[in-house]
Design brief:
Shape: globular
CATH topology of the largest domain: Rossmann fold
Order of helices and strands: HHHHEHEHHEHEE
Largest sheet: 5 strands, parallel
Helix content: 40-55%
Number of helices: 8
CATH architecture of the largest domain: 3-Layer(aba) Sandwich
CATH superfamily of the largest domain: NAD(P)-binding Rossmann-like Domain
Strand content: 5-15%
């Protein structure tokens, strides 16, 4: 007969497998980022969830505790990859945490934008769901704390980003971005954070952070 501790750990393993399957479905549907651990709802409530798990299991949660540091390394890796491509005119397609929302809290693309601005990069960003005049409450406070002058670098169409950019960063899986990436100018380089197209990396043209 299983001990209570073994039962908890076995149940946790089954839950983890179910969670991985659910995450895979979200990636396929464009609702989760394949370059990061956990989906946005997990990441935004990570500390609270971890505290509750620690209290209920009384076990060290090495994987959960590694999620945020690992994602920070991935963000840095993404920025390093972008800068390695050269070019100081960078366009970002999509910066909400998923393609169908204006909620920017927990979006790691916002962190990427913030870091690129800090490096002196000239930026042009677009997300059809984000209208600064319509943002309210914690969501508005979050983005203004991270990028106070975001309105200056936002444009009204994805086409404007493509016209502007030497380097194009795909930040979420909005369907409108697929055709734009396929029709990019020969000299434009794409860094794809969400695998918007089913393609392997091609040096000097298309690069994905995890494939």
């Amino acid at each position: 007969m299983f001990s209570t501790r073994s039962h908890r750990l076995t149940t946790g393993a089954v839950s983890a497998e179910a969670g991985l399957r659910k995450r895979h479905r979200k990636i396929v549907q464009g609702l989760a980022d394949p370059w990061l651990l956990g989906d946005a709802s997990l990441l935004r409530n990570h500390q609270a969830r971890t505290a509750l798990q620690v209290q209920s299991l009384n076990e060290p949660l090495f994987i959960l505790n590694a999620i945020l540091p690992t994602n920070q390394l991935q963000v840095q890796r993404g920025v390093d990859m972008m800068r390695s491509k050269g070019g100081w005119r960078v366009g970002v397609l999509g910066f909400g945490f998923k393609p169908s929302t204006d909620d920017l809290r927990g979006s790691h693309v916002v962190e990427v934008i913030e870091m690129l601005l800090g490096k002196g990069v000239e930026l042009c960003i677009y997300d059809k769901n984000v209208n600064m005049a319509a943002l309210t409450g914690a969501n508005r406070d979050y983005i203004l704390n991270h990028i106070p002058h975001i309105s200056r670098i936002m444009v009204g169409s994805a086409a404007e980003v493509m016209d502007f950019a030497e380097l194009v960063v795909v930040g979420n899986g909005a369907a409108e971005f697929r055709e734009l990436v396929a029709a990019r100018r020969p000299e434009q380089v794409v860094v794809d954070l969400v695998r918007i197209v089913d393609s392997k990396s091609v040096e000097g043209s298309y690069d994905g952070i995890c494939w």
